[in-house]
Specification:
Layout (H helix, E strand, L loop, with lengths): L2 H16 L2 H8 L3 H22 L9 H28 L1 H8 L2 H12 L6 H19 L19 H23 L6 H16 L12 H26 L4 H7 L2 H14 L5 H19 L18
Helix pairs in contact: 1-10, 1-12, 2-10, 3-9, 3-10, 4-5, 4-8, 4-9, 5-7, 5-8, 5-12, 6-8, 6-11, 7-13, 9-10, 11-13
Amino acid sequence: MDSTVRGTIEMTAAMTILGTIGWFVVMSGQPIMDVVFWRCAFGAITLLIICAALGLLRGRLSLRIVAIAALGGAAIVVNWLLLFSSFSRASISIATAVYNTQPFMLVGFGALFFSERLTMTKLAWLGIAFTGMLLIVQGSPDAGSDAGPNTGNVGTDYFTGIAMALGAAFFWAVAAIVTKKLKGTPPHLIALIQVCVGVVMLAPFANFSQLPADAWSWSMLATLGVVHTGLMYILMYGAIQKLPTHLQGSLSFIYPVVAILVDVVAFGHRLHPAQIVGAAAILIAAAGMNLGWTLWKSKTPAGSTQAIK
């Protein structure tokens, strides 16, 4: 299978899984600090078993790999803390949509640090996707407003939630750029190092004196660790190492669409017409980026039979 095709499949699966994460965070009923700690702990156990089974723990780690992966891990942990905290302030739908400014940060980082070319077609598709994201955000009712559809419990700290989601997007982009420095390193190892960093970072703040008392909460936390961390990050990091930055960005838009659909199915939240249009714009832009669609005809120079792309 072609590397780009495989990376596309992996990124699509990862973003679909990620789209359900808000439901598990909310249904766990635990403080955000504890949710992130247990996500890292269960994720570390899962990834350690996988890495050991694949023989990845023997002679593959160097101080450079550990240091770079740990830096990415610190960014990922801050990302999770900010994003999960934003859910109760700006609602899952709005926070998720705002969080997906990350592809634009990725494209900017790619141009700045990797000299990746920004064509007008790429910018146009990203612009359409960004417009779709704005429609999703503006289609939700403001805090305290009775107008518009029900998209979740919008917290009183609405703008703080928006700022947290933007901060989470920034740290996700930082982690993604750091991961590109580890090309050739198995994504299983990268993810293992990063969640281990999370365990060490958050252990002093975790509330071990009041552990979840019911099986439901533990099942939510375990799923966040095993599926949304172990499996999802293996898929995502594997894709990041195979795909150019602009393609990663376009596929990331699958995440907010799935998150909104989860809101509809799981919580019965109604979508505003603007949100439907926004979701459609995001999907069309992602398809256009992936399939190489153009928004205008290329001019063919005189005497040439090949169009300029």
